[in-house]
Design brief:
Number of domains: 1
Strand content: 5-15%
Number of strands: 4
Strand order of the largest sheet: 1-2
Radius of gyration: 22 Å
Order of helices and strands: HHHHHEEHHEEH
Length: about 240
């Protein structure tokens, strides 16, 4: 590091990508929503689907990053005002923290909540996080399934060049996969699915912000630059935060 001179001071900041992921996710959701105002355009619908898939991925990345950010302050950075000294930690908490980089996001959230003396996530919220994580895994890890379709050739096109799908059977029962969040099949995700994901993420951010006292901020660039900040102690409407109210 460069040697200090004159009025130079050292400033330490904890770095996290949660804000970048969240802002990008919101931007992509908003752009997908705008494109779907004209869903009959194949270009619009295909582009919106790509934006939706990316938005969902970045939404969950933002949650994981925010949880790790809070966990770093709480458990791994002694200079933080929020840090719990090791000799003041309960045995169960200390044991679980040794596995921090290997446990699930839900487990990390519950450890944070436990450290503040609050009750674990309620069952409904935990199930919704689990479903979003499940969808993220289907998208990110390229899990595969198959469909069987009854089709009809489009009369105005040469044989094999286009057809209507009359009926379709899918090897995965998606309604059973996502009974709480109601996500669509991955190939048919749209901006409404991105909104479901982001509403859940902001709900969790507000909960964790209220517990920890950390306010969170993120920038959006669509349709124009905006700085967004939310405190867990405020009663701000989630759709207003996302710019879709």
């Amino acid at each position: 590091m460069t040697q200090l001179e004159g009025n130079d001071v050292l400033k330490t900041e904890v770095q996290s990508l949660y804000s970048l992921h969240l802002g990008l996710s919101v931007d992509e959701m908003r752009e997908a929503t705008e494109l779907m105002r004209n869903p009959n355009s194949s270009h619009n619908s295909l582009t919106a689907r790509r934006l939706t898939i990316s938005s969902i991925l970045h939404s969950f990345c933002s949650l994981e990053a925010f949880v790790n950010y809070l966990g770093y302050h709480r458990f791994f950075y002694p200079e933080s005002e929020d840090y719990i000294q090791e000799d003041k930690r309960e045995y169960l908490l200390s044991r679980q923290l040794r596995l921090w980089n290997r446990i699930t996001c839900i487990e990390k959230i519950n450890l944070l909540i436990l450290s503040y003396g609050s009750d674990p996530l309620d069952r409904d919220l935990e199930l919704r996080i689990s479903e979003l994580n499940n969808l993220r895994n289907w998208i990110a890890h390229g899990m595969t399934y198959h469909t069987v379709s009854l089709v009809e050739q489009i009369a105005t096109l040469p044989p094999g060049q286009g057809y209507y799908i009359i009926d379709q059977e899918i090897s995965i029962k998606w309604k059973e996969k996502f009974p709480h969040c109601k996500f669509k099949e991955p190939h048919y995700l749209d901006d409404e699915d991105a909104k479901i994901a982001l509403r859940l993420i902001i709900e969790l951010f507000q909960l964790l912000s209220a517990l920890s006292g950390h306010h969170f901020f993120f920038e959006t660039y669509y349709p124009s630059l905006s700085i967004n900040g939310v405190s867990g102690y405020s009663s701000a409407n989630i759709d207003s935060i996302l710019g879709i109210g």
